[in-house]
Amino acid sequence: MSLLHSLIQKHYYTVIKAFKSLSLCLLCLLCVNQPVVFAQNNDAKKDLSSVKQKIEQQKAAIKLTDEQQQHIQKQLKRDDLAIAKTAAKMNDTQGKQQQTQVKIKQLNKQQQVLETKKKQQEDVLAEQIRSAYSAGHHDYLKLLLNQQGPNKVQRTLTYYQYLNDARMTSIENFEQVLIELGKIEQQQQQQAEQLQVLVAEQKQQKQAIEEKQQERKQTLKTLNSQILSSKQRLNKLEGEEKSLIQTLARIQAQLQKEKELKGLSKLKKKLKWPVRGRIAHSFGTKKQGYLRWKGVLLNAGVGKSVKTIHNGTVLFADWLKGYGLVIVVDHGEGYMSLYGHNQTLLKGVGDRVEIGEPIALVGQSGGQSQSGLYFEIRHKGKPVNPKLWCK
């Protein structure tokens, strides 16, 4: 026991020293690991906060993009309506210009007639003057004092009086012709000045419409700069088509059938296209995704007349998202025709139109990059192929 006790005492301080060293190491390890765990926890919280912030920023960006798109759509509508208003004035000015030109032609014809009369009367006066000069060697006094018989003198005086009356009548007619000719020339001057004013107005209107078109191009550029995915484009087209269907459904619900409108059932392959132009997109072809064209898109220049395919009554005439300025005509028996992307509308709701009558002007409203006419025929709300009716 004394030997064991001696060994313990001998190594006691060594054991205690080793134990203290071990404890100190453990304590150091705990002190080192604890801040690492705290740091990892803080980093995770910061990452989570950053992700949440990015999500909120993305939501805000999407919301801002939607608001910008809505603003651009409203601006596009305002541009289309401004162009329509200017184009309508320009169309009216062209009509007045044609009337003025017709009036000037009429005045020119009247002037030619009066010039002819003037020449004829100048010839008559010249002949009368020559006759008077030839017979003018004897004045009235000589005739009275000569030795000839009174009957002969009386006949001569009567002849002179007749020549004088004829000459005075010719002079009066000549003066009247000159007065009328002066009036004609004054009217011609007024009409020419009016024509110059109309031409100047037309030039200003043309400049205004070109400026509006430039504004719209900038609007379209801004709208197209916001890149849309295929799904977004599909949703956009679906929304536009849904809006059109809802509008047509509302029109159909409000429609009061007119007995004199016999529909289009007996007119297949007998109607003319509303405007001449190549078909850019045919009925039933693929439009986007599973969507297909419900009508046809006809290529045509801006300002060309859009004519109704048959007699009917205008049911709708307004701007429609995706289709621009649209006019819809009821033909009776559930048949309707639709004309979209117009520059301006020449008819209003309730107007009666006859076959071939101009109802609009071709444009590119509704966000189109090129001018053209979108054309549909529907029967009881269902789209049908226009090629079956138009030739």
Short key terms for the protein model shown above:
391 residues, alpha+beta, Glucose Permease (Domain IIA), ten-stranded antiparallel β-sheet, two-stranded antiparallel sheet, 12 strands, 16% strand, elongated, disordered N terminus
Q: Give the assembly state of these chains.
A: single chain
Number of strands: 12
Structural class: alpha+beta
CATH structural architecture of the largest domain? Distorted Sandwich
Query: What's the N-to-C terminus distance?
Result: 129 Å
The Cα radius of gyration reads 48 Å
DSSP strand content? 15-25%
Give the number of domains.
2
The fourth-level CATH homologous superfamily of the largest domain is: Glucose Permease (Domain IIA)
Principal-axes geometry comes out as elongated
Q: In sequence order, what are the helices and strands, one letter per element?
A: HHHHEEEEEEEEEEEE
Query: At the first level of CATH, what is the class of the largest domain?
Result: Mainly Beta
Number of helices: 4
**Mean pLDDT, all residues:** 75
**What is the CATH third-level topology name of the largest domain?**
Glucose Permease (Domain IIA)
